[in-house]
Design a protein that fits this description.
- This protein has about 180 residues and is mainly α.
- The chain has one domain (about 1-135, about 145-170).
- It is built from seven helices and no strands.
- Helix 1 (about 1-20) runs antiparallel to helix 7 (about 160-170).
- It is globular.
- Belongs to the SVP26 family.
- It is a multi-pass membrane protein.
- This is Protein TEX261.
- One of its GO terms (molecular function) is COPII receptor activity.
């Protein structure tokens, strides 16, 4: 029952992000600023390692680069690939640091949540938001409408919402209306 609530919550969150992309972009920007402030505070007050804080701040800078094209995130763009690599590096540095230094579990969990997990999770859930947005800019030499119909799949939804819809239908199949 608990997994069903999580899946329903993620599905609802993905729907909200898809509906309110401008607000979502603003919220993610504030989360990046908050994470940056936390990292600077940890460096100044807690004397966390310079390398770990520096990589975290650079990761936040890369996240700002991803936010420039939000909700359109290309999985093959250098920014996206770099952000994925930096997430792995950040985790390695954090595990290495917390293995050597003792901190209560709640503080370690807070660091991982606010500095490592929340922003990539927000980008992950919002991956499908750009798929159902109408094209609004024209590339040089491209017709916006024909480019949209030739590159996109007509009427098909892709991404995380399709996965959530499949899970929802597998767990709670919809009832057929009888006429």
């Amino acid at each position: 029952m608990y997994n069903l609530r999580q899946a329903a919550g993620l599905y609802y969150l993905a729907e909200l992000i898809e509906e309110y992309t401008v607000a979502t972009s603003r919220i993610i920007k504030y989360m990046i600023w908050f994470s940056t402030a936390v990292l600077i505070g940890l460096y100044v007050f807690e004397r966390f390692p310079t390398c770990m804080i520096g990589v975290g701040l650079f990761t936040n800078l890369v996240y700002f680069g991803l936010l420039q094209t939000f909700p359109f995130i290309m999985l093959t763009s250098p920014n996206f690939i770099l952000s994925c690599g930096l997430v792995v590096v950040n985790h390695y540095l954090a595990f290495q640091f917390f293995a050597e230094e003792y901190y209560p579990f709640s503080e370690v969990l807070a660091y991982f949540t606010f500095c490592l997990w929340i922003i990539p999770f927000a980008f992950f859930v919002s991956l499908s938001a750009g798929e159902n947005v109408l094209p609004s800019t024209m590339q040089p030499g491209d017709d916006v409408v024909s480019n949209y119909f030739t590159k996109g799949k007509r009427g098909k939804r892709l991404g995380i919402l399709v996965v959530f819809s499949f899970i929802k239908e597998a767990i709670l199949p919809s009832r057929q209306k009888m006429y």
